[in-house]
C-alpha cells in the first residue's frame, strides 16, 4: 500500500505539472450510459440490483463516466485526471494482474484544438510517467483508426467483417503472421488474396519514415480518410520530435485496440524485457522475438463519445486520453523491491520502557515527538515486556528507540538507541543507548533522522 | 477537489505519524457480511445484481469490511487507516451533506491491549486532526455503552425497550428534555417514573468529576457492568490528561449512537459555533443553547465484530476506531474560503506567443520548464489569439507568463510577466514583461515562484 501511494503520488504529480485538474465521478452510472460503449467486453459490466430506483451499474472504466460528466455539465474544454477503481465481472486471475476491482489512473484532454497537439502532449505525459516510475524499457505502439479502417477498405475487407478482422490483426504482437492469416481466412472466411494484401501493410512498423513511405503509395492515399490519418500521423511525429518522445514511439500498423469509442490515434505502452530501446524499430524477426511483458498504459482519441451523451449537436467535445494500468505497474515494481525491505509503516521512533511500565511517561514522550512532527509509537500496555517491544521495532524496521527508565526519568534524561545496523547507518550513528536530556530529545532525534 | 486532496493529505499525514498503515478493502462485500450490523439503517445497503455469482452489496462503512479483513487474514493487531468511499441507498440531500456516495476517513487500532490506552490514543488522533484542519471550535462528546446500558438497567427499562429508549435519549442534543420524555412515555409507552429517573442521569455531562460523582452513587455501582464502565471512563480521563485531550472531551450521558456493533466507549466530535471551548461543561441552559453545526467525526470501541467473522473463538480481536465525515469537513472549509480564490489547477507558468503562433517554440519552452519540475501549459492551437491566452491565465489564476516573440526568440530571449497584482506580489516582483535569456529562464522563474 505504501508503494501504491508512492506510485500514485508520482503519477498525479506529473498530471498536475501538465495542468491537470482532479475530477471525481461516482462509482456507479445509469446502466444505459455504459451500454454499447465497450464492444464484446460489455458482458463484464457489474449491474446493481434494482431496489426501487434507476437501473445502475458499476463503472467499467473512467473514460465513459468522464464523457458523461462533460456532457452533463456542458464543459467544452478541460485537462482532467482521475485515479479511481473500476469494476469488471471477470474471473479474477491474480497472476495475470486481472482482478474484479482495480485502479485506473487517467489523464484526458478535452476541447476543440488544432490537430495532434493535445495528442502529442498526452504521449509526452505517458513517456514522462513511465520514465519517472523507472519500470524498465518501454515502447509506445501507435496507430490511427482512420489508417486501419482505410487499409481494410483499400484491401477490400467487407464492411461487416471489419471488426472481426481488426481483432485478429491485433494479435500480431503475440502470434505469427501465419497464425493470424489462418484465423482470418479459415475461421473468419476472408478471401486469401485480401488477407495477403492486408499482410503487406499491417506487418509494418517504424517511425516517421514509414508514414512518408505510405504517403507515397497512391492506392492508399486515394482513400480520403486513410490519407487524412497519415497526414495526422506525420503531424504527430513533427510535434513528438519537439516533445522528445519520438525515440519511444513505434508506428505499428497492427495495433487495433478493441473499444468502440476510439476515432483517431490509438496507443499502448508495452514493456520490453532486457532489450535495448528500439529507436527505429524494423519489421525484423529479432524484434518480434522480444519478450513482451504486456501493456501498462493505453489510450487514444475519442471525438464522438461526449456527443453521444449531449442533447444538442453543439455538445460534441473532442477528447484524447491515456489510462495507466496501475495494478500491473505495482506488480512490476513489487518484484523489483525486496519485499522485506519495504517498511510496513512510517514510524520513526519507538518509545519503550525498561521494566517499570512508565505508561504515562511513554505517552508524554510520544506526544512530545508527535507535536514536533516525528512519528512515534509505544506499546499499549501498562507493563509491556522488553522483548515484545524490541520485536515490534524489528518487525516494523523502526530506526530509533527512546528508552525510558525510572532512574533516568528522575534525572531528566532518556536513552536513544539505533535499532538495527541499517538504521544506525541511516541515522548516521554507531552509538547505542546514548543518554540525552529530555529537553534536547527532539533536536537530537531530528539530527539523527536527518529531518 | 484540490481542497479535498489537501484535507485528505493532512489527515493521512497525522494517521501515519501515529503509526497507521494504509489498508484497502474491496468496494463490495458478500451481502451476508453486512447483514445485521447496522440496526435500522440496514435498509440503506446497496445490493449488486446477482449475475451468476455470489450475492454482493456495496460497503456501507469502512469498519465492517475492516473487521472482515482482520478475521479473514488472521491479523491480531494493527493500526490501520483507510480513506475511501462508502455507499448508502438514501435520498440525497446536498444541503445536509447527505449523499449516496461519500468519503470516509477511518483510523482504527486492533489488538488485545490494556484498557483505555488505544482508546485514549484514538481521541488524541481525533483532536489533532480537527485542530490541524482548523475547522473551528469543537467538542468531543463521549459516553460508554456499559454505562448507558447500566443506567437503563438500574432505572428499570424493560430489556425489549432499551434500543428504542436509547434512540430517544440520543436526541437530547437537539430536543428539550420535555420532548424526549414525551416521546418515551407517550409514544414508546415507558413508565413515567422510569423516564424521570433516567432523566436524572442522562441530562448530565462534564469531566472526570462527573465520573467520580457517579462512582459514589451506590445504586449505580451495584450494577457490575455500569461500575466497570465508570472505572474505564476514569482510566480514560487519566490518560486523556497526559495526551492533552481533556479540554476537548465532554462525558455526555445522553450520547447513544445507533450502530449495533459498539461495545465500549463511544464518541462524536461536534463543532460549536461562536462559542468558547467548554473546558468544564455544565448542564446549564446556556450550553444547551449553543448552536450545534453537527457531527464531523464519530467512532467507538467494537470488541465483538471481528469475532463474528472468525471461525474459532480465538479469532476475537478487540478494536477501537474513529471515522471522519470528510464531506461535512469539506463543506465547512469551503464556506471559509472565498470560492474564487481557490485555484482550479496547479499551473505556474503559461507559455504564450505574441502573434506568430510559434507552436514548436512554445512546446519547447513548456518542455524545458516541466523538465525542471515547473508546471506549465500553453494553448493547443497553431495560432492562438492573444486575448484567449490572457483569458486562460486569468480564469486559472496562473501567476506567471512566458511570452515568446519571433524577434525575441532570434535573440535567444523571452519575456516574463506577472499575470495579476496578487501574482506579482506572490512572485516578489512588480516588473512586467522583463526580458530574460532562455538559458536563464528556469533559474529566473524558480526565483520568482520562490521554488
If you had to describe this structure to a student in words, what would you say it looks like?
The structure is a homodimer of 451-residue chains. With 451 residues, the first copy, chain A, is α+β, with helices and mostly antiparallel strands. Chain A starts with a helix and ends with a helix. Chain A contains 19 helices and 16 strands. Chain A is elongated. Chain A folds into 2 domains: 2-144 and 241-339, Bira Bifunctional Protein, Domain 2 (BirA Bifunctional Protein, domain 2, 2-Layer Sandwich), CATH 3.30.930.10; 349-448, Anticodon-binding domain (Rossmann fold, 3-Layer(aba) Sandwich). At the A-B interface, helix 1, strand 1, strand 4, helix 4 and helix 11 of A face helix 1, strand 1, strand 4, helix 4 and helix 11 of B.
Low-confidence stretches of chain A: 274-292
At the first level of CATH, the class of the largest domain in chain A is Alpha Beta
Multimer state: homodimer
Taken together, the total number of domains of chain A comes to 2
Count every beta strand of chain A, where a strand is a DSSP E run of 2 or more residues.
Answer: 16
Radius of gyration of chain A: 29 Å
Number of helices of chain A: 19
GO molecular function (chains A, B): ATP binding; histidine-tRNA ligase activity; RNA binding
Enzyme class (chains A, B): ligase
EC number (chains A, B): 6.1.1.21
Family (chains A, B): Belongs to the class-II aminoacyl-tRNA synthetase family.
Amino acid at each position: 500500500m505504501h508503494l501504491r501511494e508512492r506510485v500514485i503520488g508520482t503519477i498525479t504529480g506529473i498530471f498536475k505539472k501538465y495542468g491537470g485538474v482532479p475530477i471525481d465521478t461516482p462509482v456507479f452510472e445509469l446502466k444505459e450510459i455504459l451500454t454499447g460503449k465497450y464492444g464484446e467486453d460489455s458482458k463484464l459490466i457489474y449491474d446493481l440490483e434494482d431496489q426501487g430506483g434507476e437501473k445502475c451499474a458499476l463503472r467499467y472504466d473512467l473514460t465513459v463516466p468522464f464523457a458523461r460528466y462533460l456532457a452533463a455539465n456542458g464543459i467544452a474544454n478541460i485537462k482532467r485526471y482521475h485515479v479511481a477503481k473500476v469494476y469488471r465481472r471477470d474471473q479474477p486471475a491474480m497472476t495475470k494482474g486481472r482482478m474484479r476491482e482495480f485502479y485506473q489512473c487517467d489523464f484526458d484532454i478535452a476541447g476543440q484544438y488544432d490537430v495532434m497537439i493535445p495528442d502529442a502532449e498526452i504521449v509526452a505525459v505517458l513517456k514522462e510517467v513511465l520514465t519517472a516510475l523507472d519500470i524498465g524499457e518501454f515502447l509506445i505502439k501507435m496507430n490511427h483508426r482512420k489508417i486501419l479502417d482505410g487499409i481494410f477498405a483499400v484491401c477490400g475487407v467487407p464492411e461487416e467483417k471489419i471488426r472481426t478482422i481488426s481483432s485478429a490483426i491485433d494479435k500480431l504482437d503475440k502470434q505469427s503472421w501465419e497464425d493470424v492469416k489462418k484465423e482470418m481466412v479459415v475461421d473468419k472466411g476472408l478471401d486469401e488474396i485480401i488477407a495477403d494484401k492486408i499482410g503487406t501493410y499491417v506487418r509494418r512498423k517504424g517511425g516517421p519514415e514509414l508514414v512518408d513511405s505510405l504517403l507515397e503509395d497512391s492506392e492508399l492515399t486515394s482513400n480520403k480518410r486513410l490519407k487524412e490519418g497519415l497526414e495526422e500521423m506525420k503531424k504527430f511525429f513533427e510535434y513528438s520530435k519537439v516533445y522528445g518522445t519520438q525515440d519511444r514511439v513505434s508506428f505499428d500498423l497492427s495495433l487495433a485496440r478493441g473499444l468502440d469509442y476510439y476515432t483517431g490515434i490509438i496507443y499502448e505502452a508495452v514493456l520490453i524485457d532486457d532489450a535495448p530501446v528500439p529507436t527505429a524499430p524494423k519489421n525484423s524477426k529479432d524484434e518480434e522475438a522480444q519478450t513482451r511483458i504486456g501493456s501498462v498504459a493505453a489510450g487514444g482519441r475519442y471525438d464522438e463519445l461526449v456527443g453521444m451523451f449531449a442533447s444538442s449537436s453543439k455538445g460534441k467535445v473532442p477528447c484524447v486520453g491515456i489510462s495507466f494500468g496501475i495494478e500491473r505497474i505495482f506488480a512490476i515494481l513489487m518484484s523489483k523491491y525486496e519485499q522485506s525491505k519495504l517498511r510496513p509503516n512510517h514510524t520513526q521512533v519507538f518509545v519503550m520502557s525498561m521494566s517499570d511500565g512508565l505508561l504515562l511517561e511513554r505517552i508524554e514522550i510520544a506526544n512530545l515527538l508527535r507535536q514536533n512532527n516525528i512519528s512515534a509509537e509505544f506499546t499499549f500496555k501498562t507493563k509491556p515486556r522488553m522483548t515484545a517491544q524490541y520485536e515490534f521495532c524489528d518487525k516494523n524496521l523502526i530506526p530509533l528507540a527512546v528508552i525510558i527508565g525510572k532512574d533516568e526519568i528522575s534525572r531528566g534524561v532518556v536513552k536513544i538507541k539505533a535499532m538495527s545496523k541499517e538504521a544506525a547507518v541511516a541515522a548516521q550513528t554507531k552509538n547505542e543507548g546514548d543518554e540525552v536530556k529530555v529537553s534536547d530529545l527532539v533536536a537530537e532525534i531530528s539530527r539523527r533522522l536527518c529531518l
